[in-house]
Amino acid sequence: MKLKTLMLMTGAAVAITPMAVAQDMADSMTIVSWGGAYQNSQQKAYAEPYMEMHPEVDIVWDESSNEAVAKLRAMNEAGNITWDLVDVVASDAIRLCDEGLAMEIDPDDLLAEAPDGTSAEDDFGDLLVSDCFIPQIVYSTTFGYRTDMVPEGVEPPDDICDVWDLETYPGQRSLEKRPINNMEWALLCDGVAKDEIYDVLETPEGQDRALAKLDEIKDEVVWWSAGADTPQLLADGEIFMGSTYNGRLFSVIEEQDQPVGMMWDAQVFDLDGWIIPAGLPEDRLARVKDFVNFATDTQRLADQAAYISYGPARKSSAPLVGEHAELGIPMGPHMPTAPENSENIFVYNYEFWADYRDDIDAKFQAWLAQ
Amino acid sequence: MSKLSSTGEQTADAPTPEDAFHESATLEGRDKEPPHGSGEGGPVLAADGTPLKRSLQRALRREKLRALGLIAPLLIFVLVTFIAPIADMLFRSVENQIVSDTLPETTATLQSWDSAGDDLPPEAVFEALYYDLFLASEAKRHTRLGTRLNYEETGLSSLFRSTGRSLDDYGELFQDVLEDHDEIWESAGFWYEMMGTTGDEPGQPELIEAQRDRLEALTGERQTGEIGFVPAAAIGEVLPRTADAYAAFAAYAALEDGDTVAEEEPWEAVFAALASDLRRDGAAEAIAGYDGDGAEELQAALEQAVPEFPETTYREFFLEEDEDWGSLDAWGTIQAYSPSFTPGYFLNAVDLELTADGVSAKPEGQQIYVLLFQRTLFMSLVIMGSCVLLGYPVAYLLSNLPMRVSNLLMILVLLPFWTSLLVRTSAWKVLLQQQGVINDILVWLGLVADDARLVMINNQFGTIVAMTHILLPFMILPLYSVMKTIPPSYVRAAKSLGATPWTSFWRVYFPQSIPGIGAGCILVFILAIGYYITPELVGGTTGTFISNRIAYHISSSLNWGLAAALGTILLAVVLILYWVYDKIVGIDNVSLG
């Protein structure tokens, strides 16, 4: 009798809980992302499976990640947050956290454990660079070059300093129109040891030194501000080599079959992930938490790699990375985190650039305008 | 071009000077009739007996009100959605309340510090900073201030962020000693009773209200909830710093966290404050004379715990946490940006900077805005000029060709006008780039060597070409509408009187088309000066405008104050040029059709 009551109660509780939870959650969710192939990979890997499980949920996508910080600040000032989940790069997540615009999270509380029981905090490890940031992928900024424009009898470029070697590798380059990454590469090729780069870059002399190094190729550089620029310039044959995000280059090489090669040397790792805007109402917050827990579990992050060549942020996802969903090629070797690609890497120095961004950017822009 | 007979036909329908003469004659006749009820020399009266002047005024006023009522929806719409946001945005260019809102006590005590000397601010400033920063970091506002000050002095962003994380450590030094001696210091209830009053003792409600105001300044929201704590006056005299710190804690716990003050253990800052109060000169006498709640415990703490307190000061704590707190520049910046309003953003916008020693020029390598303003003006003028050169003949053709041909031409003018801006800009990229259509043709024709292809994009030339194309319709349309109204007979008349084609164009036709040129120039120039996306895409490094920097500061660096200052200057420049234009050409000589 007693046992039966208990079973009945448990059964009732099990039956009631999902309903009760469902009632507390909003049925609509606005997710902000970057658009293009990246957003597509998120839709395929996270959103569609989630909507299959929860048919009542309606997900609206907003392609505003590029201006997410400014727009969130404006929304916050207006007191009307219309976004539920925002995809941003780690440096933006840090700024949003600093400004109090993103919600602080407890990874172990919010995020799923790895299948082997490792806590989320350990599974993400060092990638939790801010108290508000939920990492999704590791991407890198690296170089692609035209294989058909490599002069005859010369090895293809495999060293970051080949960017500066205009004699061996003639042709234009494209670099991002901001100091971040370019200054580091310049100092590295000016003979500064890798672990001293930020000590040098802190000083005005070091900044001038980096700009002087960039001066050597300034006339041959096309400056880009949108991630699609370099792939387009490569495809048009406008440039010999240029920096961009590794996923864009993968798409040029494998999906569009252009004569372009990857140069992984001194690639700069950066992170992209979610933040939850601060001040969401209860029901929307509950829905977002539920979605984030699902979308950042080990399997979902590994699934995303089938659509785009960015490395999953969880350690436990790496062994699960399989083949490209359409091309059927193994994705492992195309990941920036693959051992043969990551022999010489940089990691975006968030702390340094949070401090020096305004100052060095002013110098960099003044240098550009001269 | 045309025959004399056809000219005669046309003038038959047109109004002639004789018509005007007849009309004015009939008008004069009407005036001569005596008006109703007019007396000799008295005021002219209307039909109802009121003076005509007043009656007319009343009628006019009614008319005006009705007109105002008609445009009211538009006027309100424009005010609310256009003028007000712009005014708000421009206001940010001088607003700087964040420093004094976040660090009110620090900025007040820092006033008397001499930034030109070699000494760091006195201990009192560091003490004030500790409590200001503690509250700010609880409210997560210290990083926002760090971001703000980092625009002026590199490194302050991480200074505030990292210091905010370790503020607890200083309070814990004293908290540990106190709690080791007597566990009662861990009790939230004991603290609450000691610091507060239940009503029979005199209280200091103004202390807690001050904290409420402070929280409002800090978070931007007025919390009206009950705090459930009234500071006692007696303890406030004995332990002034502690009373302040506890009131700050109580207000925050109750209003922001929604906790019950009596159940919460006070912040580490309260322990730090207690330590300061116990070690201050005259503390022993004050506590000996105090007999309220916690008198015994305070006496015990004074005798036993205080000698064991670590020998440290606020200043030592800050300098240990980060040596940058010992930087005179950092303190100079905080002092220079203490006032609620600052000229700093405007100075930055013209390559100057506000330092502790006054205004000085930015380092040479960082001067960019004056150059960009000049470039923006120069390129806008060039674009405007090339629009006139290209647009004038097109508009002339449009207004003089037969209807069927001119309609076709009009469609050709309007077609790109209806095409997306981005598409047109990208099309220019395809045409002008080094592997692009134009270069390919030139190489194929043998005019240009394959390894010396022309650089026509990602520089000023590319921007001028693309923007001239994009803005051309804004020049052609007003020109066309003005030229359409110039009677062809005038030129024919000039020719028939012996003028050469050039003279008849230059002396007769051109002066009549000037209002169209004026309107087109104003349109094109003002549009060009604020252009942003085309220079960004095809401007490279030498073809970018000031608006690209404004966009950068709005969306990337989040330095909205500087963006607002740059925008205000740009607006002022446009208004001044408009005024100059009005003085030289006269705004009445502008016709939009």
Automatic annotation (TrEMBL), chain A:
This is Extracellular solute-binding protein. Gene3D superfamilies: Periplasmic binding protein-like II (3.40.190.10). Residues 1-22 form the signal peptide. It holds the Pfam family SBP_bac_8. The lineage of its organism: Bacteria, Pseudomonadati, Pseudomonadota, Alphaproteobacteria, Rhodobacterales. Keywords: Signal. PANTHER family: ABC TRANSPORTER SUBSTRATE-BINDING PROTEIN, SPERMIDINE/PUTRESCINE-BINDING PERIPLASMIC PROTEIN. InterPro entries: SBP.
Automatic annotation (TrEMBL), chain B:
It comes from the Bacteria. It is a multi-pass membrane protein. GO terms for cellular component: plasma membrane. Residues 1-48 are annotated as: Disordered. Keywords: Cell membrane, Membrane, Transmembrane, Transmembrane helix, Transport. The keyword Membrane applies. Residues 373-581 form the ABC transmembrane type-1 domain. CDD domains: TM_PBP2. The chain crosses the membrane at residues 67-87, 377-398, 405-423, 461-482, 514-533, 560-581. Its main location: membrane. It is found in: Cell membrane. Residues 1-10 have a biased composition (Polar residues). It holds the Pfam family BPD_transp_1. One of its GO terms (biological process) is transmembrane transport. Belongs to the binding-protein-dependent transport system permease family. CysTW subfamily. This is ABC transporter permease. It comes from Psychromarinibacter sediminicola.
